[in-house]
Amino acid sequence: MIDDDGLGFCAGVQDAGADPFCERSADRRFSECRQILGGCFRFESNSEALLQLVGAAYAGLPSHRLPNAVPEFRIELHLLLRQASPAIADPPPVQTQSGAGLLCGIMDSSNYVILAPEQHRALVVVSEDMLSHPYHLRYELIEFAVFTLATRGLGLVPLHGACVGRQGRGILLLGASGSGKSTLALHSVLRGLDFLAEDAVFVQPESLLATGVANYLHVQGDALRFIDDEETRRWIRRAPVIRRRSGVEKFEADLRQGHRRLATTPLELVGAVFVSGQSADDPDVLLSPVPRDEIAARLSADQSYAAGQPGWHRFEQRLMQLGVHQLRRGHHPRASVDALCRLLD
Q1: DSSP secondary structure of 306-320
Q2: Rounded distance, CA 271 to CA 269, Å?
Q3: How many whole angstroms separate alpha carbon 307 and alpha carbon 320?
Q4: Which of 305, 313, 311, 304 is nearest to 154 (CA)?
Q5: What would you report as the CA-atom Rg of the chain, rounded to the nearest whole angstrom?
Q6: CB-side neighbour CA atoms (13 Å) of 333
Q7: Handedness of CA 103, 106, 109, 113 (dihedral sign)
């Protein structure tokens, strides 16, 4: 039941009692379309600042297209007035809920995402306070909506990993956080390989076509010691520094700003590699095949979320046919890139 003063949810609305759920369109709306992960996304917002964050994440990306019909996804971004609560160093982590055909990611009462995957739609609600936390806003709210809708709507397998390749062929880089995937992706780019994604890769299980968001590369400061080119070191040092939820700080280098090779089309996977933080016993032998009877268990353990999604079994079968390797560290990341190049030949 609603009292005479309304719900008070729509801060700034003159007649909140007449429109307690903010269903009336705002007087001024901003809108733009982006081709992301093989799908067409239309973003609509009452805030130009929120659409600028969308551009920061997705402008300048190659327009990947996947086989079969592509639905249009719609994401509405609503900006609320600044909250009265005191400022905090970091927003609370997102808590997920589901029910009634909806998926939800909730930071707090003023910052959350509601998704209706069957309708290819999402609502992202953000308070003005969150504009001072662009990293969390982009990755934990906007990206949450984009990635989830694309996964469900396009039938993709969502993987925590990286992917590089050349001439339309790709290698999937898997492994625990801190194993060196980002450093390996960086040196692969410096060697001229095509960059597809660093943190999240999405795969069509039948075709093994992989797509991703080739925007940022996150590099820890200690990785710079392996870079000989001074211009590249300056490029990375000029990048903003972000802090993960784990507390790890990394440079967020925008690959769209330099002359880096971004994968212009989805890459067809020719194999996968588990990146290990352990040094190789023999520096000349970094790659070793994962026994076929161990592949399924290792993939499921490494990708616990993806293993529960539709399409996982087919993806797993296809990858087992191609073969999976383990890659241990050599004296320099260049040696690891050499090993990847042999798999791509």
Answers
A1: GGGSTTHHHHHHHHH
A2: 6
A3: 14
A4: 311
A5: 22
A6: 22
A7: negative
* Strand segments (E) across the chain: 30-36, 39-45, 72-80, 95-99, 102-108, 111-116, 121-127, 157-160, 162-166, 169-174, 194-197, 200-203, 209-212, 216-219, 241-243, 249-254, 267-279, 287-289, 324-329
The bridge status of strand 72-80 relative to strand 39-45 is parallel
Residue 215 tokens read as 């925007």
Q: What are 287's strand-pairing partners?
A: 327
Report the amino acid identity of residue 217: L
Tens of pLDDT along 155-179? 999 999 999 999 999 999 999 888 8
Q: What is the pLDDT of residues 25-60, one digit of tens each?
A: 554 589 999 999 999 999 999 999 999 999 999 999
Cβ neighbour number for residue 106 with a 10 Å cutoff = 17
The Cβ-side half-sphere exposure at 284, using a 13 Å CA radius, reads: 0
DSSP helix/strand/coil, 137: helix
* Residue pair 38/70 in contact by the 8 Å Cβ criterion: yes
Q: Where are the alpha helices (DSSP H) in the chain?
A: 48-58, 134-136, 143-154, 181-190, 230-237, 292-302, 312-322, 333-344
181 touches 162 (CB < 8 A): yes
Q: Three-state DSSP class for 327?
A: strand
Residue with tokens 């062929």: 169
Q: How far apart are CA 109 and CA 125, in angstroms?
A: 9
pTM, 2 dp: 0.91
